[in-house]
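Open question from group meeting: does this chain pack into something compact, or does most of it stay loose? Before anyone orders reagents, we agreed to write out a predicted structure and look at it together. Recording both the input and the output here so the notebook holds the full record.
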Amino acid sequence: MSLQGQTREKTKIKPKEPKHYQVIMHNDDFTTMEFVVDILIHIFRKDQIEAERLMLLVHKSGRAAVGVYPYDIAVTKVQTAAARASEEGFPFRMTVEEA
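C-alpha cells returned:
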C-alpha cells in the first residue's frame, strides 16, 4: 500500500510541564536564626548572603518562600529540614504550596 498523494496529519504532543511548588518557611520564637541559616545553606543550597536575607525575611514577615521545586523535591526538602529540627528540639515549621 502506497502513501503517495495522501496527506498525513501530524499531531503534536506537548508534554505538560510538572507543577511547581513553593517551600514556605514559617517563623517561630524558638528556632534559632543560626539553625535556619544552616538549613537554607545545606538543604536549600543558598549561599550565606541569600540564606541570611531569607532568614531575616521569615523573621520579619512571619513566613517566606525559600524555593520553588517539583512536588517530590519540595516535600523531600521539607521532610529533611523537619527531621533535623526535631533532632535539635526546634518546633521549626515549613509547608509546601502550589506555585
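Observations to bring back to the group:
The chain has one domain: 20-98.
Strands lie at 20-26, 63-70, 93-98.
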